[in-house]
Design brief:
Glucose Permease (Domain IIA); 417 residues; OB fold (Dihydrolipoamide Acetyltransferase, E2P); mainly beta; 7-stranded antiparallel sheet; 9-stranded antiparallel sheet; 3 domains
Length: 417
């Protein structure tokens, strides 16, 4: 999908140098009005707009727009924190800076957000890849990094830091457990998958932590559950929504233990990579880590409540069958409770089922507009064979605008093109 780039900049007057605008971009300046962490909402009053070639317009009274931040943390991701934590820190009057792209013409009332800053501090941005393989760059110190234990509950391990292993020095710690044991984010950050970066590690991911540390998770599952066939799809390695640039919170399920790559049995190879771009022993951090007995609970849009007898399923659309009016969903939460194991369900759409965007409830979408990778909340009747959806809410990050404001932005974008 091609987007017409539109830059919306909302910043405090104290900003020393506004960012340069490019062709088709628009600079907007305003202040925060309301921040609602539970709804992922930031309401902003925009006071002025300027195109790339200097065409400008003052907005008096200010135009009120709603920024909806994704509660699933899909790219572009929050740079330093999760949605709820970020919005809890925003106060009325704070300056806000955004970079967005004009949305799909099928959803003209929502502009897709690419970058965000609050009072000049970056809060949203495009994901960056992790450092290259650091196997040959190891540090001699033994720091204790604040982490959660990366395996849910516990795992069997002993310190194997720099021990000889098949002709190499072992640069991580092997945490052993049953196949498909849930793995959780040891700290908050941004995910980067490495399924092909290292054949020895095979299915693997890196969490780029907010404090500058990176955590490598290697040998995630590649077996169809109940087998050792080495033929499972990524759906049984990485949890729904775990993709390049996705934000994770501490304790969130990121995937499942396995023996992909060069592994003698199911285990997690865990490494800590420091801000100095060296691998540090993870043993002291693992010994001091807090163990979770269930995945972290994250309040995701609590205002949406199913009626008695119904079920709410939050997850990621895997595929859509428009003709059969069905979608295949990778479930992350069931009635607000995070799942520790993989759950993929076929959901049928009732004749009266409505598909809407969270935060833009007056606009109905077609089933064809629910593309794979979309984050959704589904309210459904359980059914004997498969759930039947009554409501589907598309989780979409973007700026909700009315026709008047959109016309102003479009005019300035054309003037600066």
């Amino acid at each position: 999908m091609r987007y017409l780039a539109v830059v919306l900049m909302l910043s405090v007057a104290a900003c020393s140098q506004p960012p340069a605008t490019r062709s088709g971009e628009v600079l907007l300046v305003g202040r925060a009005i309301i921040a609602d962490a539970g709804e992922g909402l930031l309401r902003v009053g925009v006071t002025s707009a300027r195109g790339a070639r200097g065409a400008a317009r003052a907005l008096d009274p200010p135009a009120t727009v709603d920024l909806r931040l994704s509660l699933f943390g899909r790219p572009p991701c929050l740079t330093r924190t999760d949605t709820a934590s970020l919005l809890r820190q925003v106060t009325a009057g704070a300056g806000v800076t955004m970079v967005v792209a004009k949305a799909d013409p099928a959803v003209p009332a929502m502009l897709a957000v690419l970058d965000l800053a609050i009072d000049g501090q970056p809060a949203l941005g495009r994901p960056k890849p992790p450092w290259p393989n650091l196997r040959d760059s190891t540090a001699g110190d033994e720091p204790t990094v604040p982490i959660l234990f990366p395996v849910l509950e516990d795992a069997d391990w002993h310190d194997t830091w720099l021990k000889p292993l098949f002709g190499n020095l072992h640069t991580g710690q092997d945490l052993r457990g049953p196949r498909m044991t849930p793995l959780v984010a040891c700290f908050g950050g941004v995910v980067w998958l490495e399924p092909k970066a290292d054949p020895l590690a095979a299915n693997s991911l890196v969490i780029l932590g907010d404090a500058g540390w990176e955590a490598l998770y290697a040998h995630l599952n590649n077996d169809t559950p109940g087998t050792t066939d080495n033929a499972a799809s990524r759906d049984y390695a990485f949890a729904p929504g775990i993709e390049n640039g996705a934000r994770v919170v501490p304790g969130q399920v990121v995937g499942w233990m396995g023996d992909s790559g060069f592994a003698t049995g199911p285990h997690l190879h865990f490494e800590l990579r420091g801000p100095d771009k060296q691998v540090h022993t993870a043993a002291p951090s693992l010994r001091a880590a807090r163990h979770l007995v269930e995945p972290a609970r994250v309040a995701v849009w609590p205002a949406l409540r199913p009626a008695p007898g119904q079920v709410r399923l939050d997850g990621i659309v895997k595929s859509v069958n428009v003709g059969a009016r069905r979608l295949y969903l990778g479930v992350r939460y069931r009635n607000g409770v995070p799942l520790s194991g993989p759950l993929y369900v076929v959901i049928g759409l009732g004749d009266d089922a409505a598909i809407r965007i969270r935060g833009e409830g007056t606009m109905e979408l077609s089933l064809a507009q629910l593309t794979p990778g979309s984050a959704v909340a589904v309210v459904a009747d359980p059914g004997l064979v498969a759930p039947t959806a009554r409501e589907i809410w598309l989780e979409r990050q973007g700026l909700v605008v009315d026709e008047t404001f959109r016309s102003t932005v479009d005019a300035l974008a054309r003037a600066g093109a």
